[in-house]
Amino acid sequence: MDCMQSRIALKEEYTRFVGRKLLFLAAISLCIIAVAGVSATLGSANLSVFEVYSAILARAFPGHFETTWFADTIVWGLRLHRIMMGVVAGAGLGIAGAVMQGILKNPLASPFTLGISSAASFGAALAIILGAGFAGGEYLIIGNAFVFTLLATFAVYGLAKYKGITPETMILAGIAIMYFFSAMTSFLQYVGRAEQVQEVVFWMMGSLGRSSWEKVYASALVIIICLPYLILKSWDINAIGAGDETAKSLGVNVERTRVLSMVFASLITASVICFTGTIGFIGLVAPHMTRMVLGGDHRFLLPGSALMGALLLLAADTLARTVLAPVILPVGIMTSFLGVPFFVYLFLKRRKEFW
After folding, report:
1. 2-19 pLDDT, tens digit each
2. Which end of the chain has fewer beta carbons closer than 10 Å to its terminal beta carbon, N or C?
3. b/e 307-346 (16+ beta carbons within 10 angstroms → b)
């Protein structure tokens, strides 16, 4: 009887435990909706939050909500795709950072610190300065950034494979790739004309100003395709966090999980930064902030990091549009302002209990 009561109490405690996590995810989702509404009011056309939400709901539920032609054009035609690009990009970078930190068991792992963003920057610089690349026309920069991101991923895998797939070898390989592509980008900037270098630097700062609905759909599609595998492997990533030997004893194919998760996370990163430019620190900060609240269970950490990344990037872009209005700052500058203090905070606090 005592055993039965103990099991019931344990089950109730677990239900409350899960309930608190779901409540946090719901709260973050509501914050995203609220910030998106405020962000959509910013601009030369004076719209209230009520008009913005009416314009959005009128498209979603025609006949139940009313809006004006002016509000519909401003919200759907000019502002909402930028906001949705921020949500999708932030979610993608948050997921990629959480996965990389989980499979490499390193709190500093992220697309920015593993050389993937550096490779994308080199691809963009190659297109801007030399006009060479894997696509043509308006897709030259996007195609180059995407392809070089994947090349960097396979280069990291190849180097790590040569020495044995472990977290240490993958991180060291990522650092080597990061410095290699950074050096190549610096060389291109040195030989490029002033206006070309200016364009490269602006691209590397990251911006949501180049967004469109087609780019939002493309990024979202890649994330939707990759996310089920990563969610399915959440238990395996949890087991890897306890140590490779422990994971293997539980039946986890550690090497395959680590490599495939890295590839999917890199694919998500590529689908984002090829459209936005390099946006740092979201992939690093969002998983840490989420882990402090939800813990290290990747079943909740992955969706939580996605929502937190979306909220952070959307809030950063909103600030970037208001700090020096009407001048719009590149969102990458704002995320760096957010990320650097948090980096210092992690260094000072050394919150190892979250790992």
Report:
1. 677 777 888 888 788 788
2. N
3. bbbbbbbbbbbbbbbeeeeeebbbbbbbbbebbeeebeeb
